[in-house]
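Can't paste images in this forum, so I'm doing it all in text. The chain is below; anyone willing to post the predicted structure tokens underneath?
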Amino acid sequence: MEDTADNADAGTGAGDGTLDALLLKVATGDQEAFTPLYDALSAPVMGLVCRILRDEAQAAEVTQDVMVEVWRTADRFRPELGTARAWVLLLAHRRAVDRVRAAQARTDREEKAARLERVPPYDEVADAALDRDEQARVRRCLDTLSPQQREAVRLAFYEGMTYREAARTLDSPEGTVKSRLRDGLHRLRDCLEASR
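Text version of the structure:
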């Protein structure tokens, strides 16, 4: 068993005790202690992060962020709670998982925005059906008017004429056309209200 531990330390060049001591020195601002700490832990951090992210470029970026965080927050390391290697790898794992979650949240937001862009602000089919229903109700109610009332309403609302212009077109007195229009509109309103 001891041979395996020695071989693991030989791969990084530093045992856990040495790394703990280096990290404690880094916590005091010792820049010279950071270089061997970085050399010993950057490869394991990169390996862990790369396994989580599955993207070497992002893993390199996160590894750099983790090592900067190690420099900035080394004073939070507590050797009685675990080794320096475990503490740094925990920071790396958390940072990598945060990156995955952020990417997933970004994808979810983009998909939601795309769905919202595809959905019209109102239901076009329902709106068209309501328009057709409304038009049918208006036609039924127009059919209840006398021919003279219907013609006065048609000229005023569908042709955009004033009652004077409608009177000239119908060759009828203005007062008569005005009365037909007023009476026709009252009957039309009553019919539309009754058909709701």
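The longest helix spans residues 84-118. Confidence is low (pLDDT under 50) at residues 1-12.
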